[in-house]
Amino acid sequence: MELNRQHLSNRNLNLVLLAIVVIVCLYVTPGYLAMRRPEALRKGPGVTRIAHLSEWFEGIKGTAGDTDVYILDSGKPGGSALILGGTHANEPAGYMAAILMLENAVPAQGRLYIIPHANASALTYTDPMEGVPREFTLQAASGKRVFRHGSRATSPMNQWPDPDIYVHASSGQQLSGSETRNLNRAYPGRADGNFTEMIAYAITSLIRKDSIDITIDLHEAAPEYPVINAIVAHERAMPTASGAILNLEIEGVVMGLEPSPASLRGLSHRELGDSTATLALLMESPNATQGRLRGRTDEALILTGKDSQYVRGQKLGRLFVPYDEKGWPLHLRVARHVGGLQAIFAAHAMTAPERAIVLGGVPTYDELATKRLEPFL
Ligand SMILES: [Zn+2]
Q: Rounded to an integer, what distance in angstroms lies between the CA atom of residue 320 and that of residue 299?
C-alpha cells in the first residue's frame, strides 16, 4: 500500500515536470522559429538584381549559408565593390550600414554588391548566457521595423561539434575550437571544408569570378578592444585606406588606420587580399553590447550605447575610444561605417578613375549623425 502510494506520487511529480517542460517549449518555440525566418529588407531604387550566394558556389545551395546578394549596377563602366555586413551577426552597426546602403544607394558609375548578412546562420540565434536581445525596433520612415540581433558565430544547428582546437586550413594556424564557426577566421575558405569554410569559399569565389576591386567587411568591437574606430587594411589597400582617412578628417571624423597583421590568418582583410586581386579592408565601430564591462544588456544598450560602466572605464583609462554619458548610439556607429565607405570609394576614384564606384542617394555622415537612421529606412 505504502509502495503504491509512493509510486503514484512519483508518477504525479513526473507528470507535473513534463507539463512544465511542455509549457516552456510552447512559450519559447515561436521566438526560436521566428529567428530562423529570413529578415524582410526593402529593395532600394538602385538594386538591379537580388542573387543567392550559391550562384558563386553551388555547395551551399539551399542551406542557411545561402544568403542574399544585392547587386546595384549603374550600367556604366567603372569598378566594383563588395560590402559585407553581418560577418558577425552580433555587430548591428555593420549590417545596418549594409542595409542602409542597399535601401538607398543608386550607383552612377560602376557596380556595387552588398551582402547584409554574410553569415546568415549566425543571425538565427543569440549567444547563450549573454542576455542579449534577439531583436531591436526602429520607428522608420517606412513604418515600424524590427531588425534581428544574432551571434558572433555560425549556429551550432548548422555546424557541430566544435573541435578542441581549430586549425586554419591554408596556414595551419591553431585557435580555440569555438573559432571553427567564426566566418572571419575561415577565409579564403574551402569547397570541401566545414559549413563556415564553405560560406567563406563562396564569398571568395564571388570576388574572384566577378573581379571585385574593393571588399569592405563591416564590424564592431568592444570599447576595450584596441582595434576600434579604425580601418584595417591589407598592404595593397593601404593607399586607398590612407586617402579615405584623410577624406574623413576633412568631414571631422577621426578614424584610425591599422595594417592587416601578416601573421593573423583567416581574416577577410588578410586572406582576401592575399588570395584574390581585391583591395581588402575592414572597419570597426565601438559597441558596448559586446564588451565585458557592460551592465544591463537590453535593446536600449544596442540603440543608445549608453553604459555607466564604460564611462567609468574611460575615466580609468582602460578604453581605446572616448566614452562619455552620451554613449555610442547605433546611428553614429552606422554613420561612421557609411561615411567610411563613401570616403573609401572617393579615395579609390582618385587612384583609379577608370575603376571608380560613384554612388548617389547615400546619406552623409552629418545627415546620419543629426537625423539618425529612421528617415533612411
Ligand atoms: Zn566582428
A: 24
